[in-house]
Design goal:
Elements (H helix, E strand, L loop, with lengths): L1 E6 L4 H9 L4 E6 L9 H11 L3 E2 L7 H9 L4 E5 L7 H4 L5 E6 L7 E2 L2 H7 L4 E8 L9 E8 L6 H24 L15 E2 L16 H11 L6 E5 L2 E10 L11 E5 L2 E5 L4 E9 L19 H18 L1
Parallel strand pairs: 1-2, 1-4, 2-3, 4-5, 6-9
Antiparallel strand pairs: 5-7, 7-8, 10-11, 11-14, 12-13, 13-14
Helix pairs in contact: 1-6, 5-7
Length: 320
């Protein structure tokens, strides 16, 4: 089959390679503009070596680009990590269908960052889905799905490793079923549909007097590097959190206060319960954050520095 591949991010590379090494033909590669994507160079290199046309439109829905896509007479469009929304005029171009690789259980996890949200919500599993792209965002029939267990220490890095390893294999299976006309589809139940919004760095602000220990732990592991990380403030300095562990012992205290330091870990109380911060660093200097003795008494909460941060942010936005 003739395929146009829309890709961006780490997910796109193994999927592109598995298609390139199959019996199918990649007619063109579509990615984000160079200025928007750190993955442009790698996708561009693959395109150049393989003599595949590469396009990076700022708006893939414009009429001029629509005509470019029609020129290739593709059987399938495949989207892997491509972050731009395709309108119906583009979705209808391929002879068979558009496929999208989605990192969440549908219809519950429609929208953006489904794997991050699964961790934030404390799910015991997450699901990879390959769906048919339709006008309704993430609303198309499910062509294949695969579910994996999550434990309390699974991070977003772990989920991406699984996704980048499993999606190519799932894609090969779906392509084989399309070609052999044995594809089984499952319509989504709109009554159970829910959408999750795009996450922004400010969403990682830890409110020690609002969230309990498990909620904070879930945010830390869902937003760890390469994401912007969950963060808080200590003596007016921004601290980013890489990892944490739930405290198995019952311990309660003033939310945000460091009560114990042990082996480079520090125990912090929350709205309910406590957790160990096992790795953190100063945002500006990138130096490890290791409180010593009583030099650092407690983290700033939303009642102290937090309100000023958001006020300043709003003032800056109003000036634009």
């Amino acid at each position: 089959m003739d395929i146009i591949f829309f890709g961006n991010g780490a997910r796109s590379l193994p999927c592109l390679k598995v298609i390139k090494n199959s019996s199918h033909t990649i007619k063109a590669i579509i990615t984000h503009p160079k200025i928007e994507s750190k993955w442009f160079a790698q996708l561009s290199q693959i395109a150049e070596i393989s003599n595949i046309p590469l396009f990076s439109p700022k708006n893939p829905n414009e009429k001029v680009f629509e005509n470019t896509l029609k020129f290739f007479h593709a059987d399938l469009f495949i989207l892997a990590g491509y972050g731009k929304i395709l309108k119906n005029n583009i979705i209808q171009i391929p002879k068979i269908m558009c496929l999208n690789l989605h990192g969440g259980k549908l219809p519950k996890y429609r929208g953006s960052s489904p794997m991050n949200w699964a961790l934030i919500n404390g799910e015991d599993f997450f699901t990879l889905s390959i769906i048919q792209l339709v006008k309704l965002i993430d609303g198309g029939p499910v062509l294949m799905e695969k579910t994996f267990d999550i434990n309390e220490n699974t991070t977003i890095v772990d989920l991406h490793k699984i996704a980048n390893h499993e999606f190519p294999k799932m894609l090969v299976h779906v392509l084989e079923n399309i070609e052999s006309d044995t594809l089984k589809i499952s319509k989504q139940d709109e009554k159970n549909a829910s959408y999750y919004p795009i996450r922004v760095p400010e969403d990682g602000f830890i409110l020690w007097d609002v969230f309990n220990a498990k909620e904070i732990h879930n945010r830390i592991r869902a937003l760890t590097a390469p994401y912007p990380c969950a963060f808080s403030f200590f003596q007016n300095k921004k601290i980013k959190f890489i990892s944490s562990e739930l405290n198995k012992k019952s311990f309660f205290g003033e939310p945000g206060r460091i009560y114990k330091i042990k082996d480079d870990r520090f125990l912090v109380s929350t709205k309910e319960g406590s957790l160990w911060i096992t790795e953190a660093f100063f945002d500006e200097s990138r130096l490890p954050f290791l409180p010593v003795g009583n030099r650092y008494e407690s983290f700033s909460t939303i009642k102290e520095i937090g309100l000023n941060i958001y006020k300043n942010k709003n003032l800056d936005e109003n000036k634009k």
